[in-house]
Amino acid sequence: MNVEDAVLEMLATIDASVRRGDIAKTMEYVADDVVHMPPDGPALIGKEALSRWQKDFYGAFSLDMTHHAEETNDCGELVVHRGMVTGTMTRKGTPESFPLNNKYLFLLRKEPDGRLKLWRAMFNSNVPATQPQE
Question: Which of 46, 59, 85, 125 lies most in the core, judged by the most C-beta atoms within 10 Å?
């Protein structure tokens, strides 16, 4: 399988896992030494820190999201991947939902067994906080 197809397969699996709230499955694609940089907060350093953050986040929200690949560059041991995420985030126990319109940048590391792992990640909204998302 080429790198672009491997990235697309990984993203589709992550999206399906997030919809189900299956954090354990999403964490299978995360390197132990990950650095994850969400908006409006500190960097999450290490798989355990990201797992705790996800448990808190997915405890409060459910997501129906889709990654849209825009660029994938195979750089040897690393893959640089950029894209968009669209969908809906709903606060659990309420009808309150928010559209997702985000951009992201991932550095994926090739593991010795050939699998890709999320090594560095950052994302934020395409819409300024002062404007409603559409």
Answer: 85
User: Domain limits at 34?
Assistant: 3-125
Rg of the chain taking only CA atoms, in angstroms = 15
CATH number of residue 93's parent domain? 3.10.450.50
Q: Which run of H or E residues covers position 41?
A: none
Q: Which residues pair with 61 in a beta bridge?
A: 91
Beta carbons of 21 and 131 less than 8 angstroms apart:
no
Question: Per the domain annotation, does 134 fall within a domain?
Answer: no
16 within domain boundaries: yes
* pLDDT of res. 19: 93
CA angle centred on 15, ends 24 and 49, rounded to 5°: 40
Contact (Cβ atoms closer than 8 angstroms) between residue 18 and residue 63: yes
Strand partners, 85: 67, 102
